[in-house]
Design brief:
It contains six helices and seven strands, in the order βααβββαβαββαα. It has 197 residues and is α+β, with helices and mostly antiparallel strands. Helix 3 links the parallel strand 4 and strand 5. The longest helix has 15 residues. It is globular, with a radius of gyration of 21 Å. The C terminus is likely disordered.
Length: 197
Amino acid sequence: MGSIVYRQYSGESELPHIMALVQHELSEPYVIYTYRYFLQQWPHLAFLAYPSQSSEPVGVIVSKQSMHRDVANRGYIAMLSVHKNWRKRGIASTLVRRTVEVMKKHGVEEVVLETEYDNSAALSLYESLGFMREKRLYRFYLNGKDAFRLVLVVPPPELDEEDQAARKPLPARYLAPARMIAIPSLPYDSDDEVSSR
């Protein structure tokens, strides 16, 4: 088994391969429209892994990137699948790294995903790449299983010394933990009525 070639999604002709990989390896069923939703809007965030000398992919990642609640530029990994015969070769981590690198070029501030709470291999993979468990989502999947939402906070790009001197302070979202939002205090007026509840 030779080297792996990674290619960006190139069009509808690859869709049957992507669907076969995801349906065979993941527990959540997806209809063709779900795949097209991601692949037609964010084709640059989908990658396939092919063994050299093969036209059948053995790994795939499908993602998106958009503004979340008009506050954060958020990436979302919707699907990551590697054929069971090709696991433990770094394919999944390479697919995630490539996708996150493209997201960084488009200003991503955080990347999120969900995975089954008992999928220790997936949890280990994502945590090794810097993702943190944000929360547990009860009965998240159609099969009734819980999920963990994982988050990777992406710091702004490093600046050289010249840019460092002219740099403004970082926004609060980079100084606080990923889900901590500073809430400004409201003015207090002692003449306000006190609620009886």
